């Protein structure tokens, strides 16, 4: 693999809607002649960093923030195939792509092959770079109905669906799944070969079973076994508990994966990707982010959220991030509650001013601390 990373800085103007302000984001654009892995026609750098698709989290504003901090590949929130073919507006909106987001994939889930194939045809119209199939979501409302990780209980159907989708689209198709349904059915090594035979272009493995949900530690040994299987030639992407630069480096060095996918650890901490990239490239840890920098980032995040939403919806959409952005600050509980109850830009900005004044020069919680993964 070629280690020279030719990087160009590209600026994108993002308008802040009702605030009347604007901000610029610097996005790393990689020269396609210097790469470490390919997913079909999608070229990614060596030791690529990928943002995991997360429902109600990885909307366009959050994706753009993560892109700013060095994400190499992103995905939509996962999208139900049945909702796509029924053309439900709020679901179709989840597939919309900002020009600066490429390379970008749309992730679909469902249990019926015909619906998945039909939804892929609709997804193509949004011009993603690839299609990802979710066979890993452990949520009860998904898995117990036979979709997401529930597909791991019907491997013939899973393989039939995957092969049909591969045949139905000109785009590269990838799969995200888990080690198996439970500890008695960790089938990922065999399943990886079978999925490769269907024609998928890459495989992402979360190092837990469906039964584990997100409890316990991710088991990367089986991910490494898949990667080191001499019969495997497609890129293998590892996922699970990557919450620090050191863990990301271990995933590459010890288990040999082609890329790592980071999910929950990036919620409220999109700069984690910059920390990881810097450590991989230099071996040095960046200084900790200061709270005052987080305050500015939250302002930008809210501004982007307001571009295509009413003010009240933009503010409420940020509540899932507020608790994490300022995690670990001393005597912060009362302020956090106020943030979570705020209903307007004015209220949020007043609280952000307070946070900057009182805690601004404290270090934000570090990626070396114990955080949600």
Topology:
Layout: E1 7-15, E2 22-30, E3 37-39, E4 42-44, E5 48-51, H1 60-68, E6 74-75, E7 79-80, H2 81-85, H3 89-92, E8 104-109, H4 113-124, E9 130-135, H5 140-143, H6 155-168, E10 173-178, H7 188-198, E11 202-206, H8 221-227, E12 236-239, H9 245-255, E13 259-262, H10 272-282, H11 291-305, H12 311-317, H13 319-325, H14 333-341, H15 345-359
Parallel strand pairs: 5-13, 6-8, 7-8, 8-9, 9-10, 10-11, 11-12, 12-13
Antiparallel strand pairs: 1-2, 3-4
Helix pairs in contact: 1-11, 4-6, 6-7, 9-10, 11-15, 13-14
Care to describe what's here?
The protein is an alpha/beta fold and 373 residues long. The chain folds into two domains: 36-282, Aldolase class I (TIM Barrel), CATH 3.20.20.70; 291-359, Non-ribosomal Peptide Synthetase Peptidyl Carrier Protein, Chain A (Orthogonal Bundle). Helices cover 38% and strands 17% of the residues. The protein contains 15 helices and 13 strands. It has helices spanning 60-68, 81-85, 89-92, 113-124, 140-143, 155-168, 188-198, 221-227, 245-255, 272-282, 291-305, 311-317, 319-325, 333-341, 345-359; strands at residues 7-15, 22-30, 37-39, 42-44, 48-51, 74-75, 79-80, 104-109, 130-135, 173-178, 202-206, 236-239, 259-262. Strands 5, 6, 7, 8, 9, 10, 11, 12 and 13 form a nine-stranded parallel sheet that branches. α7 (188-198) links the parallel β10 and β11. The two termini are 29 Å apart. Residues 1-34 and 367-373 have low confidence and may be disordered.
